[in-house]
Amino acid sequence: MTTTTAAEPVTRTLEVPGATLTYDVRRNDTTTEPPLFLIGAPMGAGGFPSLIARIPDRTIVTYDPRGTERSTADDPEAPITPESAADDLHAIVGAIGSPVDVFASSGGAVNALAWVAKYPNDIRTLVAHEPPLATVLPDREQALAATQAIHETYMANGFGPAMAKFIAIVSHEGPFTPEVAAAPPPDPAMFGMPTEDDGNRTDLMFRHQMVHLVGYEPDFETLKRAPTRVVPAAGVESEKIMAGRGAYAVAERLGTDVAIFPGGHNGFMGGEYGQPAGEPDAFAAKLREVLSA
C-alpha cells in the first residue's frame, strides 16, 4: 500500500480531574466518516505514525494517556484504572465531538472496553486489539499471579528485572501455570536492560498497569446492551500469548467472532519506539475492512 501524507496534527491540551491530557487531531474535512481515535496504554500517540500514514482519508485522533509522555498526572501515586481512563477518553471526545470509531490496542483495548461500558454513546465501532485481560482467561488465577509477579519484581528490584520478567510473561504461549508465575526473571542484561536498581518506582506500566489493567473485570452484560459494535481482534502471530488469548476470551463472552489481523501484537507499527516493524500496510487494509463491515 502506498502511504499518503496525513494532515498535520493540531495538538491540544485538556484539563480533567487529576490530570492534563495532550491529544492530537489530524483533520480531514472531505470525509463523511466519524473521527478515528487510535489509543494504546501505556503507549501514547508515538506508537501510531505508521498506521496514521496509511489512513489519510479519515480524521485521526491520538492522545497520550495520563502520566504518559506529554500528558501529566497531578498525583503520580494515584491509581490509574480503566475507569479513570474511560473518563479521560470521554472528556476528549466531548471536546472534539462524538461519536467516534476506535482502534484500541493492548492496554488501550482494556480501557476502551471500560469506556464503552461507561459511555456507550461515544463510540460507533470499537476494534479491541489484543486486550491483556488475565481475568477472562480459563487460567485466570495463574495469569493474575504471573502479572502480579511483574509488579512485585518491580517494587522489590526495580526496572531492569521487572522488564525482563515482563518480557518472559507477555511472550509466554498457552495457559499459565504456578511455575511460570514463580519463575525468577531472566537476566536483564539479555535484553539490554539495566541490572542495577536505581530506586525509581514511578514507571506507569509496572506500578499501575500490571495491577489495574490486567485485573480489570469487563461488564459483559452492559457491553452486550451498548449500541457500540465491539470487534475483538488478535494478530495471526500472537494468538497464543496472553493478549491474543484475551481477544478470544472477550469474543466468547460477547458471543461474537475474533477479527484476525496481520502480524503480532505490534502488527500496526513500523518501527516506533525501536520495536521490530510489524506489517502496517496489511494491518491498515484489514482495519479499513473491519471498520467498513
Task: Describe the structure in your own words.
The protein has two domains: 10-133 and 216-292, Rossmann fold (3-Layer(aba) Sandwich), CATH 3.40.50; 140-210, no CATH class. It is built from ten helices and nine strands. It has helices at residues 49-53, 82-96, 107-118, 140-157, 159-170, 178-182, 204-212, 220-225, 242-254, 280-292, and strands at 10-16, 19-26, 36-39, 60-64, 72-73, 100-105, 123-129, 229-235, 259-261. Helix 2 packs across helix 3, helix 4 runs antiparallel to helix 5 (159-170) and helix 4 (140-157) runs antiparallel to helix 7. The mean pLDDT is 94.
List the keywords:
293 residues; alpha/beta; Rossmann fold; nine-stranded mixed β-sheet; globular
The level-1 CATH class of the largest domain: Alpha Beta
| Contiguous uncertain segments of 5+ residues | none
User: How many angstroms does the end-to-end distance come to?
Assistant: 20 Å
Q: H/E order of the elements?
A: EEEHEEHEHEHHHHHEHEH
Tell me how many strands there are. Answer: 9
Q: Main β-sheet, in a few words? A: 9 strands, mixed
Within CATH, the superfamily of the largest domain carries the name Alpha/Beta hydrolase fold, catalytic domain
Number of domains: 2
Q: Report the sheet-strand fraction.
A: 15-25%
CATH topology of the largest domain: Rossmann fold
User: Which word captures the global form?
Assistant: globular
What's the CATH architecture name of the largest domain?
Answer: 3-Layer(aba) Sandwich
Please give the count of helices: 10
Radius of gyration over all CA atoms, rounded: 18 Å
Average residue-wise pLDDT:
94
